[in-house]
Design a protein that fits this description.
Blueprint (H helix, E strand, L loop, with lengths): L6 H27 L1 E3 L12 E3 L10 E2 L1 H5 L9 E4 L4 E5 L4 E3 L4 E3 L2 E3 L4 E3 L8 E3 L9 E3 L8 E9 L4 E4 L7 E9 L5 E2 L3 E2 L3 E2 L1 E5 L3 E6 L5 H4 L3 E9 L1
Parallel strand pairs: 1-2, 3-4, 9-10
Antiparallel strand pairs: 4-5, 5-6, 7-8, 11-12, 12-20, 13-19, 14-15, 14-20, 16-17, 18-19
């Protein structure tokens, strides 16, 4: 004789609820510890929300044209895509789309193809600096492998009677010299002469130094014992 146990459906329902709870708990734990994708049973890195593991395959991010990239509405900071128009990965920094391969490093050398802008987002020249720049040390102009390199050197001193500052160059290699002295009024003056004050100062280059002097009248008091600069352009 067949009998119907009223407790059986109740036990079945409780078993299903318990199974569902286990699935939810398992899913929550997996989401909190990260997700790993790969062959076998990969373990995600503790610092990664998504850890893709493979030694034979890569990961593909969305691919689109430059026009499609620029048409993305309100891109989030950190959004990344592959631009098929220029063939490179771009990421959004919160304000602009940035290209990933702009600078290339080979050993200790860093180079770039195209124009470089400093304080400008639309450089028109290989080096386009919008603002005040400073170069310390030697600057090479031209291609030293094909022609004599032209360099610049800055010398500083204090303008005094019969003063000098060593240049350390072959005088025949010196192409030009620009000189300025700071007056007691804070302004910078070039060597010169006027009918009222005479020479502020004068200079000449010899075999080892730039030699300078002040005149005995007029403007000499304004520049005596003041900072003086000499910018030399010379051949290497």
């Amino acid at each position: 004789m067949n009998t119907f146990n009223m407790a059986q459906p109740h036990r079945t329902f409780l078993a299903l609820v318990a199974l569902g709870a286990c699935v939810l708990i398992t899913h929550r734990t997996s989401a909190q510890s990260g997700v790993a994708i790969g062959s076998g049973s990969p373990t995600p890195a503790s610092c990664a929300a998504l850890d893709v593991q493979s030694t034979t395959q890569g990961a593909l991010i969305p691919r689109m044209t430059s026009a499609q990239r620029n048409a993305i509405a309100a891109p989030a900071q950190g959004l990344a895509i592959y631009d098929t128009t220029v063939g490179d990965i771009f990421y959004f920094d919160g304000t602009l789309w940035r290209r990933s391969d702009q600078w290339h490093r080979t050993g200790s050398e860093v180079n770039i193809t195209g124009n470089v802008g400093i304080n400008t987002i639309a450089p028109a020249y290989p080096l386009d600096c919008n603002g005040t720049g400073r170069v310390q040390g030697f600057t090479t102009l031209g291609d030293a492998a094909q022609t004599n390199a032209v360099k610049m050197k800055l010398l500083t001193g204090t303008l005094a009677w019969g003063g000098s500052v060593a240049h350390g160059l072959d005088p025949s290699d010196i192409l030009s010299v620009e000189a300025m002295v700071q007056g007691t009024d804070g302004a910078w003056y070039c060597p010169g002469y006027d009918a009222v004050n005479g020479y502020r100062f004068h200079w000449y280059a010899d075999g080892s130094s730039i030699r300078f002097d002040v005149d005995t009248q007029g403007a000499s008091a304004q520049v005596l014992n003041q900072p003086v600069k000499f910018l030399l352009m010379y051949r290497q």
